[in-house]
Predict the structure.
Amino acid sequence: MKIKEIIVVEGKDDTTAIKRAVNADTIETNGSAVPAAVIESIKLAQETRGVIVFTDPDYPGERIRHIVAGHVPDCKHAFLPKHEAIEKRGRGVGVEHASAEAIRKALKDAQTVEKEAVEQISKEDLVDAGLIGGAQAKERRKRLGEKLRIGYTNGKQLYNRLLMFQITQEQFAQALKEVLQEERT
């Protein structure tokens, strides 16, 4: 599988995992500070081939994603569910621990952020669905994020991601229905 876009990852272990799964080029941020020179490289990559941001499903990874998206518009975003990125002994989480199959699926499902986002799901909808507040909210958000391929988020981030990726009422309702059905089994 050849990837046209250049993939932004956190470090060399992520690059190794990506290259094991697909034929692709990467840019490494080498930490969550993301130096200006790296931002310039990502901007050039976006202009010439396009960019997919593929960071770890943790706080530093989300921070890097936010920084890159703020400086380089129209990037695609690939998300890996946390349970697919946990090290075998449970000591770490990251793209480098994911299977080649999980990496390929995440890259295939990469999405572009919409600039002119129109609210389709309100914060009230999230509360009504038990995704904000309540005993099961965190687990529901985790499962919903996996089904919609937008990654795990807290309540506020969930609203922003739904808006950012223009998730429709139908997509939201279907994913929520699946999450609630899984809870019952």
User: Anything to note?
Assistant: Residues 7 and 26 are 5 Å apart (CA to CA). Residues 169-184 form the longest helix (16 residues). The radius of gyration is 16 Å. Helices lie at 12-21, 36-48, 59-71, 100-108, 123-128, 137-148, 155-164, 169-184.
